[in-house]
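Model: You mentioned two targets. I'll fold them one after the other.
Researcher: Yes, keep them separate.
Model: Target one:
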Amino acid sequence: MITLQVNGQAHEVDVDPDMPLLWVLRDTLGMMGTKFGCGIAQCGACTVQVDGAAMRSCSVPVSAVGDGKITTIEGLSVDGNHPIQKAWVEHQVPQCGYCQTGMMMAADALLKAKPQPTDADIDAAMTNICRCGTYPRVRAAIHTAAKA
């Protein structure tokens, strides 16, 4: 049994220690907000936070998380009222929307590390891939969330 701290709650899971965190979150805990994209930690659709840092959950074995506090998109805000979520809506960031939960989790981690990021900071931190190309809107939304 592995005990995980996810969105402020303890969860005991009986899974293989090598199982990627993504699949534990989705298949075992039923948290469907974290998406599978590429499976090789390149696209960022699976981004969650562990102790406030953005992490690609598709390539991290659940055993590597240890006692870390995991935050998924479900834990960002229960009512969609988080500054990142509000800024995403204000700037109409999503098009297809598939990458957006990972983008928001990466953006929130960035703002925790750098509350007033520059464009260069955003460009360096936001390595998530968006097939729709909404990068200018992502940048604008992050600046808006930083002001909130």
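Model: Target two:
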Amino acid sequence: MAETELELRSAEEADLPTIVALLVDDPLGARREDASEELASDYRTAFQAIAAADDNQDLLVADIEGYVVEVLQLSFILHLTYKGGWRAQIEGVRVAEEVRSRGVGQALFDEAIARAKRKGCHLVQLTTDRRRLEALKFYLRLGFKATHDGLKLHLSLTSQAP
């Protein structure tokens, strides 16, 4: 892929419908997300809180000629461990099927990791659903190590979570 085609940037509110469509275009996300024409106001509220109001949150997108083809959320978290160190958390990674295996994912992760280094983070962490075998292989190729077990507790009784 020619570098001139690919732009890595923070998401803009106009990108939100495409971002939500990426979240829906996924076997797991299809059960819990809704990309109907009139986006739920919760998506816009979350976008404002993440992208506009919090310097420790960012939605990064890969854009090819004006079309968003990948998204990830990058969060910076300050901890008491590591002598009060920063770490970066990557979540909500989705790549449009038509650009998989073309270097777009690698490029966006390189950008996220570079931002984590500039913030002074001592590590970058992420979780992935065990059913996402291809994603896990991709993360391992990027140098991530499966050093910890992650656990989640869903708090909503109406949750669509598996």
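Researcher: Noted. Anything on target two?
Model: The beta strands are 6-10, 57-64, 67-78, 86-95, 121-126.
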